[in-house]
Every structure is written in C-alpha cells, then in structure tokens.
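Q: Two folds, back to back.
A: First:
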Amino acid sequence: MTRLAKRILIFLVAIMLLAQIPMLKETLARGVTTLYVKIKYPEHSFQFQDFNYESHFGNYIISYTDQDEQRISLMLEPKFFPVLITYDPLNQPMKD
C-alpha cells in the first residue's frame, strides 16, 4: 500500500469515527444536504429547520423550508454515518 493510500485510509477512518459524535453527525448531515439542495434546486432558497432521528424508519430526517414556506424533509442513511439521501419528496416520479 502506498503512502498516499495509507493517509487517505487513515483520514476516512478518522472521519467515520468523528461522525459518531452527535453534534458532528448533525453538522456532517447538514453539510451534505445543504450542498444537495443548493445544487439540485438552485431556484429555491431553502433554510435549515431541524434534524431528527426517526426510530420508526431507522433513518435521520432533515427538514428545510423555502421562502414560500414550502417544507421538504430529506431522509438520510445509514444511521452511523448519515450522508446518503434516500428520499427526496421533490424528486419523485410524476403521477397521472
């Protein structure tokens, strides 16, 4: 294993360990989802509202509202490192 690969591996392991601290977990999830909504929906100006663990689903839910008070709640996985957005209500197939 090269020296660079070892450093990258150590960095990734450190990030995953730090993500177990609740405050850092929320900060990481907010950063990921803020970037997601800014890129995916540039016409809206979403503002962070809340971040909760929903035990019923086993996922984190983070909510944003825009200037028209439209609220979106994104579902994040996995529980130990919530960075994957698994549900976006604005990105659903059209219904007839």
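A: Second:
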Amino acid sequence: MDSKKMKIIIAISIVINVILIIVMMTLKQGYMEQAQSVVASSTKAYTDQVAKVVNSQNEFIAKSNAIWQLIFESLQSGDKSQTAFKARLAAIDTAKILQVTEVSGNVQIACGEGCNVSFVFAGGNLKSVDYSALASIAPEQEYTLTAPPAFQFQAK
C-alpha cells in the first residue's frame, strides 16, 4: 500500500474512534441518570419507612420513660395521696404525651394498643399499681423494618 492510502485509513480510523468515544460518553451519562433516578425512588420509600419507625420508637421511648418514672415515684414516695399523684403526673407529663383516663377515682394510662397501666386508689391513697402490661411489651416485635427491594435498573 502506498502512503496516501495509509494516511486516509488512519484519518478515518481516528475519526471513527472519536465518534465512538463521544457516543460512549453520551450513553454513559444516560445510564448514570437512569441509575440515579432508580436508586433515588427506591431508597425514598425505604428511608420514609425507616423515618416512620424511628419516630414511632422515639414516641414509645418518651411515653414509656414517663410512665415508668411515674410508677417509680408513686411507689417510692412517702405521700401516696391522689392529689400528690396528680401533681407528680402533671410534673412528669409536661409535654402532654400520656393518654390519661380516670374511672371512678382510679387512673389508667395508655401505654400502647390494648395496654394500660392502672393506678388504683382507695380512700384517696394509692393502693396498687398494675404495670404488668407495660412490662410485657416487646418493642422489637412492634417496630420492624422490611428489607429494601433490590434495585432494578431496566428502563421504564
């Protein structure tokens, strides 16, 4: 082959290689955008679920801590009168997170779904506290997360 044909072949080869590199970069950008959008949409649902569980756990912890503190202070206090109990309840539940109901002088505090702590008063004084429902709560069963779905990178 003569040198003119070789120069033409090399020039055409360089042009084709440059075009292929440009096409690859363009496709790479498209694949990257597609992957990022799939990851963003897939992880948003999972992070929303995680945030919901974490918020529920925080509410459970705050409520349980307040109830346990009220139980401890009520049982350890020298003043077991109902007025002292109400004062302790007001001091502990400043954020108004506890659901308190009073039925015929006895106080019940909701500690979850179907869970109540009962403070029984007789003659204006605290007689007993039933916190067995609170002690039997298993939060690890109530607050669970499902595994995130596998990423699917096919075009939609």
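Q: And?
A: The first helix runs from residue 3 to 76.
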